[in-house]
Amino acid sequence: MTAAIVIGDAPFGKRLEVHAERSAVLDELHARPFTPIASPARVLLFAFQTDGEAGRADRTALEHICRAEGCELPRPGVKHHRAVVGSTMLRWEQHSEFTTYTWEIPASLEATPFEPPASTLVAVMAKIPQPGPVLVAIDLHLVFQRAVDLEQVFDRSSLAAAANSDRSAIYASDFQPDAGGFVRILVLDRRLRPERAGAIVQRVLELETYRMFALLGLPAAQRLSAAVGRIEKRLAELAAQMCCTEALDDNRRLLDELTALAAELEAGAVASMYRFGASRAYNEIVRMRLETIGEQKVDGLPTWTAFLARRMAPAMRTCATLEERQATLSRKLARTTLLLRTRVDVALAHQNQELLRAMNARTRMQLRLQATVEGLSVAAITRLGHLSPRVATSHGFEKENHHGIHRKISSARRRRPHARCFRFSQPGRRHRSRGRSRPGHP
To answer: Whole domain around residue 5: which residue ranges?
Structure first.
């Protein structure tokens, strides 16, 4: 199939430019077609969790198996492939996070349900490198209708059975693994054509596969539930402490703890976001597949819809409830943190205001001291200006001359200015500078 569009007679027609994703969109509608299956048959399905590099490695391994068996190789970019490997038909499908290997094996008309054991039927599976951890292993046995006591084949406590919309087939399972680890599903063919049988088989296999992957969210929810409960309790305690805490250091401590709780909550929410979203999507696929089959009750046994609603729906509600708790708790943490941060900001603003007020007071004090010092300096200089010329000369200064220029003059006693300047004689002693006694003394 080609995605090119040509207008006019080939090869001279005009080729239109197509969208880059047109081929992928067209192929998606035909990605997983129903394949006819003739009764009786055994169908074994393995689903491995593969994402990223594991998915690419698995595709490479499939190509090696096809080359070794002389089968047609998968086309580049396709997500499904069918190949005959020995006496079995292999159907390979790659999904967003898992890959399935489905083996269709002819069965005997007289064979007892689920005999021989499934583990002995696909030895070729051991040749394929395991692409990832296996989550789903299904053993489906398609047989012509006959007298089969379902309660002898399955566990009565978890047995669920139903007929399709036109009651042309009955399918039953107890959803429990057998000794080999396979979940067994029995399909009774009443009047199915191969195409119809293939559709019923594929839908039943998808139901069990998507049911398993949908329930992967439950262990994640159970692991996170304890942490979410602890954060909720601690948030209530911190909110109570906020009512009686006023000190800035205490508010900062509370803010740090709230931030740590918010980080822990967001880490768990981000880690589980994909898992919970995938669980919701898989659960919706299961619901749609059950609606498509149009189940009818059989011999008073619970249908798959009723059984899954009683057993699977609570698990899905647990995941949804925990996801809602995470979102609600995140909003409460953000609101509480905002309130506490506002209180801390107000306290810091008040503290900064007090600091600025103290700085202003110190600045005014410094200005006053500076003004006082300048005033004293001016007074001292003015006093020096009124001293006698002789005293001024002894200090090495003279008054401003008529040209307005100050000049420094040398003093005869410059060596020891502080020792010999302004030396006044004591009573009864002669004045050293003049060599005579002071007036009034001999």
So the answer is: 1-30
